[in-house]
Design goal:
Length: 582
């Protein structure tokens, strides 16, 4: 018996040492079977670990189900492997089986694996249960499991709960700080992410590639250009600039802040850019409507034999949409449908091409593409068609598209607004009133238009006609002067864009004080000479403001960069980078 036990231990240690070499390890397992070596819990655990870490789950489960004896490590190994492979339901089911067969105390590592499993699919309710169990076991304050819980809540969209877990941890390492920063950035709360990062530096925690890339992500999402540049300088100072995560985050940050030149400079200096870096660079160009460099990068990726993914093709198609290249978009989509890129088109890819066709006025093709999609069209693709119909005054198809959107979501405020505007442009005020009454009945409120601009690391936001800013008098005085100057260059307010049944004078006044105009007027006063004015909007820029921005850039002699949800507009010397196509 002692000899058999020694042989089992020998094979177990051998498997552990050779686990990276799957072929050799499998031959050892074959030898174990040939020699009829007893499967002790230690040997079984190593065999399960071998198959689980190689993603050979059928074999791992067969061992688990047929082994004469198991220890908790055998279960934990397989649960952790399912968690790493984003298979939360399998991990949670195994955990339930483990508690029935081996009701021993779970380890801190196992709790962390289960939290990561819940995080992979944003499973909040099971996550609550794992958190409750960790409290019961006294693990919730420990670094390993505590960090996993911080990450789990962040990925479930619960930033405050993530911070509560973090606050309860007596010892916080780099990973826990980085997880909290990433959580805020992921949940659209960039200022909180920046605040946590500043606090991390203040208490003397050393930063790593993860924490730095997370705060860069926060800067990117809010287009915080100056803080992003400061983070770039910090990355250079501590030697992290060329780390894969940091390099990719820098490309993304500069791209989303509208500085395409610096984004490309960073990309070109990354020694071996990963797929995420290529995608970030392609997306940066796509949001600018620069299709030519996108196709050059796309071609280079194919030459290098790089694996493309859904994001790569989405960036290529988005560049076609923003550049008005409907035929090129159709060609890329056709290639995807025939499997040339190894990526099957999803709804988001079809939506880009529908947008390109719609804005080109090719409505029959756009609707036909929607109806022929192999996947179920969602509200987004119909909303894109509705937007194109509104731009081209295609009332009949627009109403049909609007009905489709509202059949998916009765509370889609943008669709109600577009329908109302279509009726208003046709001066059908009875239908406008009907749509607004429907919105009121369904308690749908139109999203307020907001524009914000960063000045000396402080974000200033404006709404249309906003008079809440401390510098209101100076802002309005400067805006009045700018409007006077651009009228000298031929600007005339486009009152046709004010779709309300009011007199012309009130329409002109409403146009004069749109939020982006207020932001630019403030920026001219407060942003240092020579620096571009960077304005972010939550809604699409209107035609009147687009004309005004072109002329203002000429009057003030500086670049004005406006980012709306669809794309970037770079106004310079009276022209826009979009070529008046958006």
């Amino acid at each position: 018996m002692g000899k058999c036990s020694s042989l089992s231990n020998y094979y177990a240690h051998l498997l552990h040492a050779l686990r990276a070499n799957l072929t050799t390890a499998l031959s050892i397992h074959a030898q174990i079977i040939k020699t009829n070596t007893p499967l002790t819990p230690f040997l079984t655990s190593n065999l399960i670990n071998l198959y689980a870490t190689s993603s050979l789950f059928n074999q791992a489960h067969h061992l688990l189900n047929t082994a004469p004896s198991l220890n908790p490590a055998s279960w934990s190994t397989l649960i952790a492997a399912h968690a790493r492979n984003a298979q939360p339901f399998e991990a949670l089911h195994l955990f339930q089986r483990m508690l029935r067969h081996h009701p021993s105390r779970p380890s801190q590592q196992l709790i962390a694996s289960l939290a990561h499993a819940c995080a992979s699919h944003s499973l909040l309710f099971p996550g609550f249960q794992i958190h409750g169990l960790s409290i019961k076991l006294g693990f919730h304050c420990m670094p390993f499991s505590g960090c996993a819980l911080v990450d789990m809540y962040a990925k479930c969209g619960c930033a405050l709960e993530s911070h509560k877990v973090f606050d309860e941890m007596p010892e916080r390492d780099e990973a826990s700080w980085g997880g909290l920063i990433c959580g805020y950035a992921r949940n659209g709360r960039p200022m909180e992410a920046m605040g946590v990062f500043v606090e991390m530096v203040r208490v003397g925690v050393s930063m790593n590639a993860f924490s730095l890339s997370s705060v860069l992500r926060a800067c990117a999402e809010a287009a915080l250009y100056e803080p992003g540049r400061a983070m770039h300088a910090l990355a250079v100072a501590i030697g992290l600039e060329q780390e894969a995560f940091v390099g990719c985050a820098l490309v993304d940050m500069y791209g989303k802040c509208g500085d395409i030149d610096d984004a490309r400079l960073i990309f070109d200096f990354i020694p071996n850019p990963n797929l995420a870096s290529w995608n970030a660079m392609i997306m940066a160009y796509a949001h600018q409507g620069s299709a030519e460099p996108v196709f050059r990068l796309f071609g280079r990726m194919k030459e290098l034999g790089l694996a493309l993914d859904e994001v790569t093709l989405l960036g290529v198609l988005k560049s076609c949409t923003n550049a008005g290249l409907a035929d090129e978009g159709l060609c890329v989509l056709d290639a995807m449908q025939h499997g040339l890129y190894g990526v099957r088109p999803g709804v988001c890819h079809y939506t880009c091409v529908v947008g390109a066709l719609g804005h080109a006025g090719r409505f029959e093709e756009a609707e036909g593409l929607i109806l022929s999609m192999p996947c179920e069209p969602d509200s987004t693709v119909w909303r894109v068609l509705l937007s194109a119909c509104m731009a081209h005054s295609n009332m009949e198809l627009g109403l049909h598209a609007g009905e489709k959107v509202l059949s998916f979501d009765h509370h889609d405020d943008a669709s109600y607004v577009m329908l109302s505007n279509m009726y208003a442009s046709a001066e059908n005020w009875d239908e406008v009133a009907r749509v607004r009454k429907m919105m009121h009945k369904r308690e749908v409120r139109k999203e307020a238009g907001l524009s914000w601009i960063e000045v000396r690391n402080e974000v200033h936001s404006f709404t249309a006609g906003d008079r809440s800013h401390p510098d209101t008098a100076e802002i309005y005085s400067n805006l009045k002067f700018l409007l006077y100057r651009i009228k000298e260059l031929g600007y005339e307010p486009d009152t046709g864009l004010v779709l309300h049944n009011v007199e012309v004078g009130r329409k002109k006044e409403a146009l004069s004080y749109h939020s982006e105009k207020l932001a630019v007027a403030f920026g001219v006063i407060r942003v240092a000479l020579g620096k571009p004015l960077r304005v972010i909007k939550n809604l699409r820029i209107c035609g009147d403001c687009h004309v005004a921005m072109k002329l203002m850039s000429k009057v003030v002699g500086r670049e004005i960069i406006v980012r709306d949800p669809h794309r970037y507009h770079r106004f310079k010397d009276g022209h826009c980078s979009c070529g008046d196509y958006w």
